[in-house]
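Revision sheet: structure tokens.
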Amino acid sequence: MNSRDRVMAALEHRQPDRVPKDLAGMRSTGIAAFAYPKLVQALGLPPRVTRVEDTGQMLALPEPDVLDALGIDVVTICDGVTSAFVEPHKWRRFNFNGRLDAAVRYPSRFHIEEDGTIRRGNTIMPPSSYVFDELHGGQPLNLNEELPKPDLKKLRAQLARRPLTDKRIKEIREHARRVRESSDRAVFFNNGAAQMPIGIGNFAGLAIFPILCITEPDLIAEYHELLTAHREGWFRALLPEIAPYVDVIMMAADDWGTQNTLIASPKVYRNLFLPYYRRANNLVHELAPGVKTFLHCCGAVYDLIDLFIESGFDILNPVQWSAGKRSYREWKDRARGRIALWGGGVNAQVTLALGTADDVARQAHEVVSYLNQDGGYVFCNIHNILAEITPEKVVALYRAADEVSDRMSNE
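Predicted:
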């Protein structure tokens, strides 16, 4: 199998020849830009200017030689840039106040303050930080005031002003075609035009929106109807054009879990989210039958797995089995043959962060051996590899997946 065959076999719940692996296929399977140069050095590759694709989470966009060195089976298309090849004309140097030899798309968006803090819009990265953040996570909650509610009239006007033009569709299609022709890796398409704009925290944040789902369910249903109908129009225009060139579509990023439990109840998901996700997934599968739909949903969401399947998603990420009281075995057994798991390779908050490279390898070997049973699995960390993680641990993580593959081939 080549890399694309390997990934697609896994996503179709067939057993591939090796465990398929991802790094930076989307913005929650990546590596911090501050950790990336050390990984490049550890792999024995030439130094380079780190391309920072996500300048909020500060994530690196890997080059093909790094993907080769780790045996990665996925490339990304992420809002006009790709890991399949280098596009120097799209990048501009910016060294983050001397902290990182880097390139970004739009350096004019950053402002360096006197104390070394870097400001990006409403977000800041102090000299002691590795990511940009904002006060209250941008989600202040004041229960002494009336909660903000979606203004449906204003929303209709906003959506009417956001056409997906023929010119834009052509640009997206031609870029996807170039990526497909340049690589035998699976192509993961990450573009806002192909994502559902609904989510448990997408209006006014996680502190407010779950409350509105309980107190104003009819309003939220109408809000979701407007957003879904608008996005269905975009899907009909875009997906037939890109379907021959992509394998996985980033369909939704909708974090329903805390470290211990759900943010909102399964009933809220079933009534106010599932019908709209199911419509969207059904339409994608109709317009692009060979393309798999991807849900990113952090936290202790084990109790929603059946509903995610009923929603029509093909893939669930990041497989955060370390949250809640369920094990990775229970996650696999609940998902087996019904929805593919993408991630979950090691406990990112404990073993990867605090353990040794040997600890990482030992746990990853155990977890991957089970999650890979019967296919339906693509390997990577639970969420992004953070700035403090040493390259030795990263290499140990990916080598563990290879060791599982080697054992499979000898059995």
